Amino acid sequence: MMNRREFLIAGAATASAPAQAVKPPNLLVIISDQLRFDALSSMGNKVVETPNLDRLAREGTRFENAMCACPVCVPSRTGMLTGKSMANSTVRDNPQAQDANLDVGPTYDNLLHDRGYKSQYYGKWHVPYKAARTYDNKVADVPGEHRDFLAYIDQHVARRQPAKGELNSPMYNRPYTASPVDAHYADAQAGVKPENYSQQDQFGLVHVPKEYSLAAYPTDLAIQALGEMKDGPFSLTCSIGPPHPPFLNVEPYWGMYPWADLPLSPNVFHDLQWAPYRQRAATMAFYHDAERVKRFESIYYGMVKEVDDQAGRILRRLDDLGLTRNTLVVFTADHGEMMGSHGLVSKMVLHEEAVHVPLLMRLPAAMRPGTVVHDPVSGLDLFATILDYLDVPAPPRDGDSLRPLVQGKPGADYRVSEWGVRNQPSFMVRTRDWKLIMADSPQSRAFDALYDLNNDPYEMRNLLGEPADRKASAARAEEMKERLLAWLARVHSPVREGVKARKLSATGAN
Q1: CA distance linking residue 330 with residue 61, whole number of Å
Q2: Is the domain of 118 the same as that of 244?
Q3: CATH at residue 130
Q4: Is 259 within 8 Å of 301 (Cβ atoms)?
Q5: Do 108 and 165 share a domain, yes or no?
Q6: Which end of the chain, N or C, is less packed with Cβ atoms under 10 Å?
Q7: What's the pTM?
Q8: How far does Cα 338 stand from its chain's mean position?
């Protein structure tokens, strides 16, 4: 036993010893492209099992009502990285990713790099190129991403000509067996090479080993980067292309979910009389068929399963390196996929299937396992949230840190998404239970819509439609419009006055 003198000497030595430095948290972001919110088992999907992403939800925080800032790739991804709305980033469409002169301001990765973080990004970029300036690895422009992948495929998979029943995928430059839902299935059966072959048209089994798939490629690079940057602090993004089109499975995902066994969402076939996108749906009659939608669903879910498997590889590498506890992991998507809902495919609309995305976060040292946030949040909030958890000062932006919500504190009860082309709705304002979709001016011939999500989660009854519904819901619709006007004022939107002057209508007349 120590006497008093020995005890005091030991205490003094301990007090004078330098404290072990606490390492700043690392950041790992995994992005999937065109992944709708209800495709994960943690979000209620009864077909696909996504155990790796479910693990993130179980060990961290699941955001039940996360909305993308825009249901189009480049504006959405720019918003996530910068925290800026379209009004302030000026990014409104995909071609702007190739504008070499467009400076959208510092991203969270730029700011982390300035604080000494090693910073790398792999996979689909799809943001104005200047924002990539601080990555330690080369982040290519949009055409460059594809060139790099094709060079990788050429190293591992021999080329051959398509056989009967096959078409050539420009994404892989390799043959694939066309599914009957493929827009050029008849051409494949006849051995004819189709013209004007878009990504959105392609459905089938691509003849490439799973180790060299479009999802495996950035995952391999990210896993290698983890080993290189393990001493930290680091910021690493793995941006996985699927389930964005082309809708192609590799083995073993092809046929993993037999199409004939799959259920259809209740809103795949319903009365579109008061639907805000009924004119758009009329241009997509090819997909207004139960079998085609189910075949689409089968391939899409196979792609989702592959995304989960690739995410699992990254998370296991994080475990193996002992980095799990001190790494903020974020998983999300830039937008969703309609997949037949409301007679629509692709995105570019403000229905839930296109704007509602998965969002999972885990930082064991700062988040209670199994936390669920029900309040609506936005992709614009990622900028402030990431910098908050990593203790880096964030300049004012259009999003908010989600840390208070994770801790159970109150926040704003709504979020806004935006996207609009001529005579289509421009904005969506969303609370936990209500949603308003509306145009940005009195002159627009777009159809506005109000949905009671608590009683109508599939958005099948536009309460601005039938006269009785219109009258009963008028006050609620104006209340939602006031939220939108408040947000437009906050972001200094140039169309606020047009929104204010518009009278809500489900008929396209104003």
Answers
A1: 10
A2: yes
A3: 3.40.720.10
A4: no
A5: no
A6: N
A7: 0.93
A8: 13
Q: Which domain holds residue 286?
A: 26-156+222-417
Q: Which two tokens stand for residue 246?
A: 């082309």
Of 417, 444, 464, the domain-final residue: 417
**12 within a domain of the structure (yes/no):** no
Task: State the sign of the Cα–Cα–Cα–Cα dihedral 436, 439, 444, 446.
Answer: negative
Residue 13 token pair: 């030595």
Residues 234, 301 within the same domain: yes
User: How far apart are alpha carbons 242 and 466 in whole angstroms?
Assistant: 39
Considering only CA atoms, which of 441, 442, 438, 440 is closest in space to residue 451? 438
Under a CB-based contact definition with an 8 Å cutoff, are residues 358 and 40 in contact? Answer: yes
**Structural domain includes residue 7:** no
In a domain, 184, yes or no: yes
Tokens of 65: 């009502």
Among 386, 417, 448, the domain-final residue is 417
Residues 267 and 362 in one domain: yes
Per-residue pLDDT of the chain (510 residues; tens, 9 = 90+): 344 433 333 444 334 434 445 789 999 999 999 999 999 999 999 999 999 999 999 999 999 999 999 999 999 999 999 999 999 999 999 888 888 889 999 999 999 999 999 999 999 999 998 999 999 887 654 456 788 899 999 999 999 999 999 999 999 999 999 999 999 999 999 998 887 788 889 999 999 999 999 999 999 999 999 999 999 899 999 999 999 999 999 999 999 999 999 999 999 999 999 999 999 999 999 889 999 999 999 999 999 999 999 999 999 999 999 999 999 999 999 999 999 999 999 999 999 999 999 999 999 999 999 999 999 999 999 999 999 999 999 999 999 999 999 999 998 999 999 997 778 899 999 999 999 999 999 999 999 999 999 999 999 999 999 999 999 999 999 999 999 999 999 999 999 999 999 999 988 766
Helices vs strands, H then E, count in the chain? 15, 16
Report the CATH number at residue 433: 3.30.1120
Q: Which two tokens stand for residue 374?
A: 């029900």
Same domain flag for 257 and 398? yes
